Amino acid sequence: MENHSVSITEAQDGFEFKFSDVFNVAVSFIDRHLTEGRADKIAILTTSGEEVTYGELAANVNRCGNFFKSSGLTKGDRLIMVVKDCPEFFYIFWGSIKAGIIPIPINTLLRAKDYRFIIDNSECSAVLYSPEYKSEVEPALEMAQNKPAQSICIRGEEKDLVQLIQDSPADLEVAETSADDECFFLYSSGSTGNPKGAVHCHKDMMYTSLNYGVKTLGIKENDVTFSAAKLFFAYGLGNAMHFPLWAGA
Hints:
The chain is α/β, with parallel strands linked by helices and 249 residues long. 36% of the residues lie in helices and 19% in strands. Helix 1 (25-35) crosses helix 2 (54-70) and helix 1 crosses helix 3 (87-98).
């Protein structure tokens, strides 16, 4: 099999998958839409009316990944996201994955002590956050024993993230990962103690997108999806991002 490819067979009780030895899931969810002719199709539509095409999404994902690499982040580094639902969430999440960096979307309703714990527990190398949350994130960074090399407020500063990445190349070499490698983390709510990081592999979004997004929800290319659950929730991450991205919706 070619690198970053997957063979999908529909069975009676769901889909079955065979992954190439080298597999980075960003190729299936981002790059594939360009080769299948969706570059000009709208991928993201915000409530304010902002539109992002699949071509623009892919370019900004690549720029973001290159920006992270040029900032000193390397394959296997962990990157915390305290980011509201916006196009930049997509760029950061997928740019990290394509570069082999592990994104960790975090609940935006937490307080400084919770962010401090997760910064230390995750041993992250970077923290990116929306300006709405700086009053909790910045004290957490000061309190944490782990000192991430990068901390970036993605909007409202002298340069926002989209401006910061504009000088980065719009082509990104895909990190050589495997289907079973760590892809992203999600932290539990901590209802029975401290939050716990749940590790998701590169293959996992394939399983959920096909077996739930396609087979159960029936999402198709001509659909427009809206999720009440925020992107930092596991269900919101599927509903609002990887289910429709897989379908080309």
